Structures are given as C-alpha cells and as structure tokens.
Amino acid sequence: MSDHICKSLIFAIIAMLIVSCASNKTSVLVGGDYNEERNETDYFVIPYGSVSLPGKWVKTNYLQSSKQQFFVNKDTVTVAVSFGKTDKFEFNRNNAKKGYDFVEAYYKWEHDYFTKSGLNVDRIESDKAKKYLIFRMHGPEVNTFLLIGTKKGYTSNFSISTRKWTEKEKVEFLKNLFLTSK
User: Fold this and answer.
1) Residue 82 contacts by C-beta under 8 Å, 6 or more apart in sequence?
2) Nearest-angstrom CA–CA distance, 108 and 23
3) Is the peptide bond between 47 and the residue preceding it cis, with omega within 30 degrees of 0?
4) Which residues of the chain have pLDDT under 50?
C-alpha cells in the first residue's frame, strides 16, 4: 500500500510540474475576406474580436508592435483595426482599469505619447455606457481619427485616415465599426 501512495505522490508532483510549466499564451486565429454577397470585408482575431468593414477593402501592412492590420479601399481610404486584451497594455498590466476606466486610461496614454511626438490630440466624442472614445491625432502630415473601445475585457482599436471624408463621416464610420463589431 505504501508503494501505491509513493507512486501517487510522484505522479502528483510530476503533474504539478507539467501544469506549472504550461504556457499562458492564448491561441489566436486570424483571418477574413471580402464577402461579395454582403459587400463587406470581414476581419477576425479570435478570441479577441471581429469586424465587418462596409465595402471591399484590401489588407496592406501589419504592425506587429501595435497588432494593427491596415486596409485600403478603392478610394484610398486607410483603416487600421486592432483587437486585444485590456491587461496587455503597459499602463494596465495589473488589469486595474476595466470598462470605461480602461478607455480613459488608454486615451491619456495615447494623448501623452502623441503630444510628446509633436502632434495635436483632440477629444471628439465619448460614450461611457457603450465604453468607447473617439479622438483625433493631427499635425502637418497626419490627420487620423481613432476609436478605442472595450467589450468584455477585450479592446477594439479602429482608426481612419483620409482627406476625402468629412469629420462627421469619419466619426460615424468608426462608431458603426465598434458598435457592430463582435
């Protein structure tokens, strides 16, 4: 009987070692394509989020550092999409900021970075209940509208750069992306 206890104890120790060495990384599935029937371009980063861009968009570059996938349409409008977890940002490693508090902290973080880089940052619109904030980053060569939002511990970041659309069109486009994203 003591041999059985000893084997069980060894098995339990090995099991604990294996579990403690297991990676905390999340498997991520990325994809999407243009859906001609719906006239939408789908993009997903499972389990973090997905979005359908209205019309046909072509993937261009991907920035690993910010996890942004860029798209361009036939009118040369550029959109960037990024999904992630709210606790993966340097200002929120302890995951203390949740919901709209995270959105505000993200805005402050971006505001500080962009202004130190010599750009202007203007707050455009926010919604505490829907947990998003839209702001504009601009300078001599840059005029980008950005939306940061959060749903269920995940963050969505959308931006649009074009001189062909009005401010109102850009804001409505960003809000629609966030409010219809999953």
Assistant:
1) 66, 67, 68, 69, 155, 156, 157, 158
2) 32
3) yes
4) 1-23
Q: What pTM was computed for the model?
A: 0.83
Handedness of CA 157, 174, 138, 125 (dihedral sign): negative
40-46 and 34-35: which strand pairing? antiparallel
**Placement of tokens 């950005």 in the chain:** 146
- The enclosing H or E element of 134 equals strand 132-138
Residue 165, burial from CB neighbour count under 10 angstroms (0-12, 13-18, 19+): middle
> Degrees (nearest 5) of the Cα angle 80, 133, 146?
25
Nearest one of 118, 150, 124, 148 to 136, comparing CA atoms = 124
The predicted pLDDT at position 181 comes to 87
pLDDT at 144: 97
Predicted local confidence at residue 26, as pLDDT? 73
Percentage helix, strand, coil, to 5, in the chain?
A: 30, 40, 30
The amino acid at residue 42 is: D
* Residue 12, token pair as written in the block: 């339990």
Per DSSP, the three-state class of 131 is coil
Q: What is the largest CA-CA distance in the chain?
A: 80
Name residues whose C-beta falls within 8 Å of residue 126's C-beta, 6 or more positions apart in sequence.
103, 132, 133, 134
